[in-house]
Every structure is written in structure tokens, then in C-alpha cells.
Amino acid sequence: MLQPFYQDSLLEAGCDEAGRGCFAGPVFAAAVILPRDFYHPTLNDSKQLSAEERHDLKGFIKANAIAYAVAMVDNDEIDQINILRASFKAMHLALDKLRKRPELLLIDGHMFYQYKKLKHQCIIQGDGLYASIAAASILAKTHRDTYMKNLHKEFPHYNWKQNKGYGTREHRDAIEKHGICKYHRKSFRLMPEPEQTALFAQEIDSTMIQIAPVITPVAAVVGQTSNNGVEA
To answer: To 5 degrees, how large is the angle CA 153–CA 155–CA 159?
Structure first.
């Protein structure tokens, strides 16, 4: 059963990403602040839900959240800065869009780039533990799925409406047959050729990363925007 909150005194925003391991398309991230009385019996890690369940929860989360936002970083920038940095940047962009400022960030995973000196807590498999992270995982996943279905119309032979850009056998066979397109991540090992860059090949500056279970010190928070979220 999901825990409603990590603690009782600070306003929490859950953050999660979708599409980090895909061969094509952007990485999406969402940030969600839930009210104290939020509850839905189906809410869970988006990977544990059907597409129909995710769709229904997407609307429920948007209707009942205190604030939510979704953002993305495209494949070209992923190739420039690497997928890990791109995932964190997408989270930062989503946090920029929140209409209400959180006091604590709950991050799915074991590392994160500090955001505007806000406190944060990294939680491994947090989307299966805390409601706000699960809600963020659902918004990130549903928005990205819709985006990839739209890209499918331009390049239908990759069948992105079904595989969403992940490296399925069908997708790899299509790459072998048709080559790559402008939406593929060229820094990923899409095929076994030795000249391709391996996934996560770029070195990460460890001084920029907070490792779980560290919480950063309290500091002043600056900047917020009025946008509540983006529609896919």
C-alpha cells in the first residue's frame, strides 16, 4: 500500500520520469503536489497499471492535485548532455512550472541534481512507495505515450504507437531495415556496431549529484511560475 506522505510538516512534491531507457523520443518528467486527503484505490507505480487505468488516473490526479506539471527534454538534447542529466533537467523544468512552491521533493531513484537549494529525498523505487511519486510517474508516462503516438504518424514503420520508442525486437528490426530517423537517440547503442556510443557512456560529475538517503540543507527558494501543467 502506498504511503500518503514521507513526513508531516513540509509540503511535498513527488517527481518521476518516463522514457529514460528508450531508443527514440524525449524523456518526460512530472512533479505533483497532492492534498492531505488524496486517495484513489488504483494509484500505483505506472508500470504496474494498464493503459486504461493510467488514463483514468491521469484525469483524477489533475482534478485533485494541489499542483502538477509535466515537462520534457528532446532526443537532441539527450544526445548532447546524456540521458541522466536530461532526466534531471526534465524534472527541474516540471518543478519550474508548478503553480505552488513545494518545501520537500521526493525523487524516484537514488540520485538527483539539487533544485534551487530545496530539500530533497531520493527514494529507490519510490513510485511504488509514495503516492505523490506514483502520481508523477503516471503523468509522465501518459504524456509521453501520447507524444510518441503522435510521432508514430510521421514514422509508422517503427510502431511507436505500441512500443513507445523502447528497444523491442520489432523496433530494432525496423532500425536495421529502415535506419534511424531524426527522433532516435544517437548516443544510445541502438545496434551492436562498435562505433555507437554506449548507454550512459558520458561521465557524470559526482559533485552535482545527491545520493539517497541524503537530504540537502534548508536554504532560500527562488523562482516559480504560474503554469499548472502541460497537456499532451
So the answer is: 85
